[in-house]
Design a protein that fits this description.
Length: 272
């Protein structure tokens, strides 16, 4: 088993890992520096040319790593933004600029020609424009890569998530490189959190149920995950509940510390 990290060592280790991760590629640097992105944008010559879109909810940190398959309550899967911890009422143009920069830096890191980057940005703009249309007015099928990701997502089950995230389908979290041990206070707080009726209800609804069943914490660990969020509190929690067929169901819950958004917000006028 790989060496785990003590609670007292976490911050120092995480800061070092974050710096090393961003040093490996331009794409990782862009992904891990949300605050510097907005500082660069505000201080650059292009700032005055950024269109002022309507004040709406935006992702605030719209890069490639925050896009992926997401299911709705009916089980329909589509490729959407699935990380909203930087969400704020802001200018939608900021999401497009950040996503475009992410695409360009990923292409540059893969040694793709400049014309490929130009095509990627064009497709991003075409897709954004198409998404604003009425669903009945949209034409054409999704790109092959989007359809392939959607098919894989539809076929995923607990065993696939467990193998990918925790490396094992047994209901426990192996401590090591990605998962670190908790303090007694942290574990106690997590047990108390999942004992709340509102949290238990959310877990059950994620599994398509709302029948008042008990939810029990099976295992929990600190989760070393992400890039820009390294250093913030993050936990992986395995919870068990009674299945609809009388057996036990297991769910993996990702707990992430909520931090203030660094995305700029417009000045709003509140009408009487």
């Amino acid at each position: 088993m790989a060496k785990t990290v003590d609670v007292a060592e976490r911050r120092e280790v995480l800061e070092r890992l974050r710096a090393l991760k961003m040093a490996r590629s331009a794409h990782a640097y862009v992904r891990g520096n949300t605050a510097k992105f907005y500082a660069w944008l505000a201080g650059s010559k292009i700032a005055r040319h950024v269109p002022a879109g309507p004040a709406v909810w935006i992702c605030g940190d719209c890069h490639l790593g925050n896009l992926g398959p997401l299911a709705d309550a009916e089980g329909h899967v589509d490729i959407q933004i699935r990380d909203l911890d930087q969400s704020v009422i802001g200018n939608p143009a900021h999401d497009l600029i950040r996503l475009g920069l992410s695409l360009a830096s990923a292409a540059r890191g893969s040694d793709l020609p400049g014309v490929t980057t130009a095509h990627m940005i064009e497709q991003m703009m075409d897709g954004y424009e198409a998404a604003l249309l009425d669903p009945e007015e949209r034409s054409g099928e999704a790109p092959n890569v989007v359809r392939a990701v959607r098919r894989r997502a539809l076929g995923r089950r607990w065993r696939h998530l467990a193998a990918e995230r925790i490396g094992d389908v047994d209901p426990h979290i192996p401590l090591g490189k990605k998962f670190w041990k908790l303090s007694a206070e942290e574990r106690g707080a997590i047990d108390q959190l999942f004992g709340r009726d509102d949290v238990r209800g959310m877990v059950l609804r994620l599994n398509g149920r709302d029948d008042g069943s008990a939810v029990r914490v099976i295992d929990a660990a600190y989760w070393r995950k992400g890039c820009s969020s390294l250093g913030a509190l993050r936990y992986a929690v395995l919870v068990g509940m009674k299945g609809s067929n009388g057996g036990r169901e297991v769910a993996l819950v990702d707990l992430k510390e909520a931090l203030p958004s660094v995305a700029p917000t417009p000045t709003l006028t509140v009408l009487p």
